[in-house]
Amino acid sequence: MLASSAFVSGMMLSSPQKHTVQTANALSPEAASSSYDAYASSYDELDGGPIASFLGINSARSLLLNNAKGRVLEIGVGTGLNIDKYNFSPDGVTSVVFLDISEGMLQQARARAENLGIVDKLDGKIEFVKADATSNQIVEMFGRNSFDTVVDTFSLCVLGNKGAQICLDQLKDSVKRGKDGGRILLLENSRANNPLLGWYQDVTADAAADIGGKGCVYNQDVGSMIRKTGLVIEDEKSFVDGVFRYYVCSRL
Q1: Residue 51: how many CA atoms within 13 Å on its side-chain side?
Q2: pTM for the whole thing?
């Protein structure tokens, strides 16, 4: 969910005093639900406006989601900033499940989809589901090997390292195998390529998460998490010197 607000919060901090890697605590599912319910009506102003465009986030979303096909699951849909980036067609996305832990966010996403005409276009093949991506709810609800494409954009940082790893395991179990066309598409905050910028992220991660990042730990090593899950990274692109990265992954 979160991208530009976490980045800007980090950049606005004064020179850090500590020289140790920070590991901000993730929001609990209950705290995340209530917090994002409160943010829902103003969320687009924070993470979907001019700053997101300037940083190239909107372009990265479009580029990544060109890969989405068939039955799609998007976790952490938020207010639906990705919805107009999908190709809803017989050769593209044919059905979709939008999942979030916040009912307020889901209401915003549902309204966006209705305004874009997507609800009518998919004619019942669209769902808005409240669930926790750091539990086993996804597999329990939809089963294994259920989706052609699974999508997450900017949610892993809010889940913390442990929660993000659990989430990736859930996504892996939910998507079809690579040989059957299954793909996982991720666009995430990550630790920068530039050593100095990466160091700055490390020492400001806690403060950035608390001040304006809504719990987003913006220096995660997402690539390592993906490989630990056993997924294969087929394509990786970095933006803003690696502060954001997208990954196209498959399951063996």
Answers
A1: 15
A2: 0.86
